[in-house]
Amino acid sequence: MRSIWKGAISFLLVSIPVKVYNAIETSEKIQFNQLHGDDFGPIGYEKRCKKCNLVVSSDQIVKGYQHAPEQYVVVSPEEIASITPESNQSIEIIGFLKPADIPTTYFDASYFAAPDGAAATKAYTLLREVMKRTERIAIGKVILREREELIAISPEGDGLILQKLHYRHEVRVIESVPGISSNKLTPPNTTELDLAENLVNNMLTSFAEIDTIDHFHSALKQLLETKAAGGTVEVKAAKTAAAPVIDIMSALQASLNARPKPKANETLPSEPSAPTLTLVSPPAVASKKKKKTA
User: Fold this and answer.
1) How far apart are CA 60 and CA 222, in angstroms?
2) Alpha carbons 62 and 52: distance in angstroms, whole number
3) At residue 249, does pLDDT exceed 90?
4) Phi, psi (5° rounding) for residue 14?
5) Average pLDDT over residues 50-69
6) Residues 142/91, Cβ–Cβ less than 8 Å
7) CA–CA distance from 29 to each of 21, 110, 161, 216, 221 (Å)?
8) What is the rounded distance in angstroms from the CA atom of residue 97 to the CA atom of residue 105?
9) N or C: more exposed end of the chain, with fewer CB within 10 A?
10) What pLDDT, on a 0 to 100 scale, did the predictor assign at position 265?
């Protein structure tokens, strides 16, 4: 694992040298290339002016902001550089708050922060433990790629997690969503609410027990490996059916009746094991096996 950024977490006179790592695994992401169907040649990207239809080079392209229909303000790289804040390789903590104070829509990418060298370990541990004791997280700012980023710093196990936050002007409010802003949502009655509460209580679980495996990704990976090995894929037509309209009270009661009732002496394990997945071979694998048998 390679660090993507080196700097320091700073608050007041305390400075903690850190290395930052991606918290999200990107190597497993399956990506497709656009190819010419006749000879499988890669499709290139051509920079063409939509006004004069000429192909242009990179040095002929300028940055422009459209402020009115077909009217642009052109901005030079020098003008942008003159207002770009200088990076000091430091995440400056500006305050501490409760995690619940940040709306979930503000959270963006996640990263791990580790102490950079033995000398940073004590201060790193102190910051982690004081946030655990006070049940607070830190909010800071850092200059990354010529942009001032808002960062949340949270304790997680033995380490610290950094999460980029959106700025207020980037986040929509839920009241702006059609169907919610009208304030015409019909509230449930007491009977419906009691039944729904019973259903929720019967479905209590923990995150460790939830199946968090991407089954489509696993099946797609197996399909691609099968085709790369010379196998064939049997394509089946997808079946779609309209969802039936059911009375909400009947649906809630039927859901409660369908749930297995927990035993009186049944308790959840303190450390439930990670869910296991039995992969069902896609049609491509089955076809390949038949081919070998033949």
Assistant:
1) 45
2) 16
3) no
4) -95, 130
5) 92
6) yes
7) 18, 17, 22, 12, 10
8) 17
9) C
10) 52
